[in-house]
Design a protein that fits this description.
By secondary structure, the chain is an alpha+beta fold. The chain is built from 11 helices and 19 strands. The longest helix has 30 residues.
């Protein structure tokens, strides 16, 4: 009799909750005339089955389980069954998420998702323990210390990876191309993210790296470009915008960065079931670089907000996208606070580029594919030239003494930092981006 009473109680409870949701949906349908979906009838048989399972757990499970845990787990199960990004956030997780968008939090500095029950690395964040240890996009984390990840929720795994700064955690990782799992010992730290970094590659050519999109990223970008122009002594001839291994972040920051380089045109639009999830954002007048060419670098670790920027600049013909195909996270997650201080992170829409391309599970294809590689600088002094050959012909247009001075000057210039096309870097993709900008600059001069 006790089980039967409990079952009836749960059915009534869920009827009340779902009925309330139907009323809310009806109100949304009335307010949004474009939404023509009719609320489906309540699945009474399924709710009865749920109540029966709930009652059986309460009465027959080997250990006593309180109602709060069962209901929280049921909610988490509903959300995690939808997609890898929807989840329930308890009060602590909700607080952590708010802190992360402000650019400082504790942990390993790794953006993750769930895939086939394992934690998948989307991207290690630059200058964090995860990046320094050598974790790579696509790595699958199968153990956290001595705990198997299989069966954990994403929130549980993230909570284990966080901890007291200075404490260690061992991540066991499966990596494509490796015959056996790899182990990484990481020391937790307070993660302070510098959203925007910049440097002058060569005279006239700037480099800006965005590590993650935060509330202050647009402002930081403007400051970075102004600093580059000041260091250069005038306007830039071109800019490399590096979005590699940028896992995303705040949508408005991505829109602001795109707008900074566009005079007009659509930046991004989203489509979802309710009115609040549908938006269109277009650029306002004013180009931060005044038309100077841009090369955007992306790779498999460029996700979400990074893909919005790359897609907007690509579709508006404002930049050349270079590198490798991006991650393909084209869904919008909305944080919906609930009455007990917790929140839902719910996927509510999909992103589309200005031309109507869906980013989801497809990603951004670069205009020029350049794989990751390292560049090594050869010693030019070991090479023979025509002038080194015995009895070589003299240059008939200049006296020997004048020619010798010219050769000396050329050799000196060749060895000066920044005088060659290769900067002080072994980053092949960045080098190719710089070479392309130089080519565009030369082409503009000749036309």
């Amino acid at each position: 009799m006790k089980s039967s009473s409990a079952a009836r109680y749960i059915v009534v409870l869920f009827l009340g909750i779902v009925a309330g949701a139907v009323v809310t949906l009806d109100m949304v349908v009335q307010a949004d005339r474009e939404n023509k979906e009719i609320a489906a009838p309540l699945p009474l048989d399924d709710l009865r089955a749920f109540a029966e399972v709930y009652s059986r757990i309460k009465s027959d499970y080997v250990e006593s389980v309180n109602d709060k845990k069962l209901i929280a787990d049921a909610i988490q199960g509903m959300l995690s069954g939808l997609d890898p990004y929807s989840s329930s956030l308890d009060t602590e997780s909700f607080k952590d998420m708010r802190v992360e968008t402000e650019g400082q939090f504790g942990g390993l500095g790794i953006e993750v998702t769930m895939e086939n029950g394992f934690v998948k690395v989307v991207s290690p964040i630059e200058d964090t323990p995860a990046a320094k240890a050598g974790l790579k996009p696509g790595d699958l984390v199968i153990r956290l210390d001595d705990k198997a990840v299989k069966g954990m929720s994403l929130n549980e795994a993230v909570r284990l990876m966080r901890g007291k700064p200075g404490s260690d955690i061992v991540l066991t990782v499966v990596r494509e191309g490796e015959l056996k799992p790899l182990k990484f010992t990481l020391t937790r730290a307070v993660i302070k993210i510098q959203s925007v970094k910049n440097k002058l590659l060569e005279s006239g050519f700037g480099y800006v790296r965005i590590t993650q999109f935060q509330a202050t990223t647009e402002k930081n970008l403007n400051e970075a470009v102004r600093k580059l122009e000041k260091d250069n002594g005038g306007s830039l001839k071109g800019l490399v915008l590096d979005l590699r291994n940028n896992p995303g972040g705040v949508l408005d920051a991505a829109i602001g960065v795109s707008d900074a380089f566009l005079e007009k045109g659509l930046i991004v639009y989203t489509e979802g079931r309710v009115a609040d999830s549908r938006l269109k954002r277009s650029a306002s007048s004013g180009d931060l670089l005044r038309g100077a060419p841009i090369v955007v670098l992306i790779n498999g670790g460029s996700a979400s907000a990074s893909e919005i920027v790359a897609g907007a600049l690509q579709d508006n013909k404002r930049a050349v996208i270079m590198g490798t195909k991006s991650f393909g996270k084209g869904s919008v997650q909305t944080i919906l606070p609930v009455s007990n201080g917790a929140a839902l992170k719910l996927t509510t829409a999909r992103y589309f580029t200005p031309s109507g391309r869906s980013i989801q599970a497809v990603g951004i294809e670069p205009d020029i594919v350049v794989d990751e590689a390292k560049v090594t600088k050869s010693e030019a002094g070991d090479r023979f030239r025509e002038a080194d050959l015995v009895r070589h012909l003299d240059n008939g247009d200049a006296p020997k003494e004048e020619k010798k001075k010219k050769d000396d000057k050329t050799d000196k210039k060749r060895d000066e930092p920044g005088s060659r096309s290769l900067p002080a870097s072994d980053d092949y993709q960045m080098q190719e981006a710089l070479n392309l900008l130089k080519g565009v600059s030369i082409f503009k001069k000749t036309n």
